[in-house]
UniProtKB/TrEMBL annotation:
Name of the protein: tRNA/rRNA methyltransferase SpoU type domain-containing protein
Keyword terms, alphabetized: Methyltransferase, Transferase
Keyword Methyltransferase attached: yes
Record-linked InterPro entries: Alpha/beta_knot_MTases (IPR029028), rRNA_MeTrfase_TrmH (IPR004441), SpoU_MeTrfase (IPR001537), tRNA_m1G_MTases_N (IPR029026)
Gene3D superfamilies given in the database record: 3.40.1280.10
A GO molecular-function descriptor: RNA methyltransferase activity
GO biological process, one term: RNA processing
GO cellular component, one term: cytosol
Keyword Nucleus: no
Species: marine metagenome
């Protein structure tokens, strides 16, 4: 059976976002055949996720249309679509979802040219932490995640697994952090670092426009060279005896604040 907490969340989600309601500005998912059809008519659809073995005629039509346009079509199980759908009707998931405005296959250069909200994980070491931050970035509407960390192939796969495979719907690149910051600034991004030496709090910072948000590794934080190149350093307030958050906690705070500002 389902986790009762998760099921309760899903029910409340349905009430907030019924299937026939227009998607909120900035949301990159189109949910159900009606929304997907409208998106294919008027939006930049970059991917379709279709229920495996769906026998719905409209879904088949949308799948064919996407294929003819060169839009990637991926299949998912019933549980995949139920878990990922922005809105559901009871236990039955929509048979099709669309990703709009964000190209998961975009290169580093294409991602910077597209602008938006980007994240750089500078010096992160642990695959699970990296995976959790990728998932948080994706769900809060980021355009791309860059990771500067010395992970081997197996560790990178583990990070993607920990992200609940969020990397399938957003570009994730492994980069040199210093070079990436320089490229981002040349592309017009403001660089905002998140560190306990910050002089501003996230809600007092402008997180709109083209912004590269930087979080540091678990042990050494953000390298001084990147802090020096940042336009602003912010900090999340702390009041406990242990003056340190887990990596994901301040990242989630800033991601949510950025989403709030960018949705206003």
């Amino acid at each position: 059976g389902r986790d009762p907490v998760r099921s309760l969340y899903a029910m409340s989600r349905c009430h907030r976002n019924p299937v026939n309601r227009a998607p909120v500005l900035g949301i990159v998912q189109r949910c159900g055949a009606e929304e997907v059809a409208a998106a294919l008519d008027s939006e930049d659809v970059t991917l379709l996720l279709v229920l495996r073995d769906s026998e719905d005629d409209e879904v088949a039509r949308l799948r064919l249309l996407a294929t003819e346009r060169g839009i990637p079509v991926r299949e998912g199980s019933r549980s995949d679509l139920w878990r990922m759908a922005r809105a559901t009707e009871g236990a039955e998931p929509p048979h099709v979802l669309a990703l709009v405005g964000r190209n998961p296959d975009a290169s580093v250069e294409q991602s910077l040219a597209a602008g938006g909200l980007a994240w750089l994980l500078a010096g992160a070491r642990y695959p699970v932490n990296i995976g959790f931050t990728i998932r948080t970035a994706e769900v809060s509407g980021a355009s791309v995640v860059f990771v500067d960390g010395e992970l081997n192939h197996g560790e990178r796969k583990a990070a993607k697994r920990a992200s609940m495979k969020a990397h399938r719907f957003m570009p994730v690149h492994w980069v040199n952090g210093g070079e990436l910051v320089e490229s981002a600034k040349q592309a017009g991004f403001r660089v905002v670092a998140l560190e306990d030496t910050g002089t501003a709090e996230p809600w007092d910072a402008d997180l709109t426009g083209d912004v590269l948000l930087v979080v540091g590794g678990e042990h050494d934080g953000i390298p001084d060279s990147i802090l020096d190149a940042s336009d602003l350093v912010v900090r999340v307030p702390m009041a406990g005896f242990v003056p340190s958050y887990n990596l994901q906690a301040p990242m989630a705070v800033v991601a949510t604040e950025a989403l709030r500002q960018r949705s206003s």
